[in-house]
Amino acid sequence: MTALLEVRDLRVTIGSTAAVRGTSITVNKGETHCLVGESGCGKSISALSVMGLLPRGSKRETTTLRFAGEEIGSFGEKQMERLRGDRMAMIFQEPMTSLNPAYTVGSQMTEVLRRHRGTPRAQAVDRAAELLARVGITAPGLRLGQYPHQLSGGLRQRVMIAMALMCDPELLIADEPTTALDVTVQAQILRLLATLQKELGLGILLITHDLGVVARIADRVSVMYAGEVVESAPTAALFAAPEHPYTRGLLTCVPVPGKVRRDEPLGSIPGVVPRVSPGFTGCGFRDRCSQAHAACSGTIPRQTVSDGHELLCTLAPGWVAREAA
Amino acid sequence: MSDAAAIEVRGLRREFRVRQGMFAPPKHVIAVDDVSFAVPAGSVLGVVGESGCGKSTLARLILGLLEPTAGDVLVDGQRLSGMDRRARARLIQPVFQDPFASLNPKRRIRDIVSMPLIAQGSFGRAEIERRVDEALDRVGLSRDQGTRFPAQLSGGQRQRVAIARALVLRPRIVVCDEPTSALDVSVQAQILNLLAELRRDLGLTYLFISHNLAVVEHIASEVAVMYLGRIVERTESEALFATPRHPYTRALLASVLTPEPGLGVPDVGLGDIMPDPANIPPGCRFHPRCPVALPRCSTEAPPLVDDAVGLVECHLVDVEAAPAHA
Ligand SMILES: Nc1ncnc2c1ncn2[C@@H]1O[C@H](COP(=O)(O)OP(=O)(O)O)[C@@H](O)[C@H]1O
Ligand SMILES: Nc1ncnc2c1ncn2[C@@H]1O[C@H](COP(=O)(O)OP(=O)(O)O)[C@@H](O)[C@H]1O
Ligand code: SF4
Ligand SMILES: [Mg+2]
Ligand SMILES: [Mg+2]
């Protein structure tokens, strides 16, 4: 498989916060890679780093930031602007981040194509209508003439997806795209993303805090904690044999119908995600970890559990199975 | 059942007039439409449904924060309308979704928790201090945390403060409106475990609202499914999850994404028409989205089927149930 996006050892500092600390992520063509973790773990900042959209005052360092074979880490704002919305597109939890309330859906969608490709208006309108239909919007002609506030939350999210697809991007980054939606609409939007990916061969980097979403849509999962990827694996492998105490903890917190009896407590992780400063050493999870021991304050090794399954922890891979035996 | 019910609502209805703009006439939104049920003392009624279906309106009616357009709310056997505010506060208390919005940022945690006691006007200083300590202790907050301001606490700790404030008058009933929806899963689990423990230890009754069916399944003994202001199915929790009968309940259940890889994202089959409480469809209000609608569903309101399993409003269930009744 060809790597569409390759990020090696990404570090982002915002003021006195080490928001991302040595994260590596690869997204292959036609693959969905999910970044999962609680809020504040560095998921959004990682994604924004790739898009060149970091908040003011952020400092980014990385050894590799390669997109479609080209090193883009050194790109200036002009060059990034040319990539964004064209070959790589991003959608957000709140559609109004991308949609301008003052313009109709049609004029915003066609503007993307005109800016990047200089496409004539009539042709751009056709493309917009075609994509609205493609994302399951009935009466696309009517929607093109409407303003964002005239649409429901689910429709707006579809419009945002359609707009992201105007220039046929190779990479789509979706940051919690369904978190604000009803479960019924969430299922529809995720199905849509899965279908589009298959048909268009998109690479998708999807950020979510919901392990249910991950299980159903990801090919590969990276679990983030305090700015680091603490475990990364093909989806089936991660859910079959999670190794990192954080991954394991997260999984026991999720209520699953029929799994935990009503009178029994859910599993939970005590405490909260820490805000880590640049000089921090040791495992970021150690204060909340039931397995923590002296070595967890030292350098934490990155270990291989099995092919493609990596673990950032002092525990030796296979510890869960050994403990159970 | 009436005498054992902690909460009972009868024919409850609430309309809102919503302005459509400068010139258009205002529209009537029926947020809660002829809802009746009883919640036995010590049990948990879960309420689920999509946003806008009327869950929060129902909660506010039961809390006495809104006047019903029609119908009655009885709490602990007493009519809510006309009940003294202070008496009401001793019986029933809320916990809302966003603890930050519901806590005064300028007050210390202890002061926030003591407010309901002070509002009663009948507690002495020592008693107030004792009760506040007890409530903080119950929800797992330290004395030290009691001296801080809301902004100095995490989201989960703030929700504990809201729960302590709800408990300080030792009410019998707590109405929880999406109490964990703004929290991370790990914190959600902590809060759900706490609420379950409190219910057991204090013998509380909950009305527990959530859009997350998995959360409701975990905590509720009975579940009411709301759609456009009406309860379309109400069944004991285990039966509802084992054999959902209303097509809407089935769709809601199908859309729960459990962390099981390999299953993919289900096709819920609801289409892309969204429900609008200002334009409630004739017949069965769910028919425009119903994947199994019968011809009569678009014209005739479905009857209420009330049998050994539970209550359902659906023509299909009525047809299936008919031979058994004959
Ligand atoms: N604009 C910002 N200014 C300062 N700190 C920020 C900003 N955005 C994010 N952070 C910090 O960076 C860390 C990672 O945040 P983020 O990537 O948004 O987490 P996630 O998306 O996983 O919830 C957090 O500690 C957060 O407080
Ligand atoms: N104060 C109000 N004024 C006008 N309309 C309202 C008011 N409160 C709720 N509504 C309307 O009533 C319906 C139900 O809302 P709500 O009870 O908040 O639903 P839910 O909590 O299930 O999301 C919605 O259409 C909402 O817009
Ligand atoms: S490194 Fe130590 S503290 Fe961190 S997760 Fe592993 S065992 Fe727990
Ligand atoms: Mg984020
Ligand atoms: Mg609500």
UniProtKB/TrEMBL annotation, chain A:
InterPro entries: AAA+_ATPase (IPR003593), ABC_Ni/Peptide_Import (IPR050388), ABC_transporter-like_ATP-bd (IPR003439), Oligopep_ABC_C (IPR013563), P-loop_NTPase (IPR027417). It is found in: Cell inner membrane. PROSITE patterns: ABC_TRANSPORTER_2 (PS50893). It comes from Neoroseomonas lacus. Keywords: ATP-binding, Cell membrane, Membrane, Nucleotide-binding, Transport. It holds the Pfam family oligo_HPY. It comes from the Bacteria. This is Peptide ABC transporter ATP-binding protein. It is a peripheral membrane protein. One of its GO terms (cellular component) is plasma membrane. Belongs to the ABC transporter superfamily. Transmembrane segments: none annotated. One of its GO terms (molecular function) is ATP binding. Residues 5-251 form the ABC transporter domain. GO terms for biological process: peptide transport; transmembrane transport. SMART domains: AAA.
From TrEMBL, chain B:
Its main location: membrane. GO terms for biological process: peptide transport; transmembrane transport. It is a peripheral membrane protein. GO terms for cellular component: plasma membrane. Pfam families: ABC_tran, oligo_HPY. It is found in: Cell inner membrane. The keyword Transport applies. Belongs to the ABC transporter superfamily. This is ABC transporter ATP-binding protein. It comes from Neoroseomonas lacus.
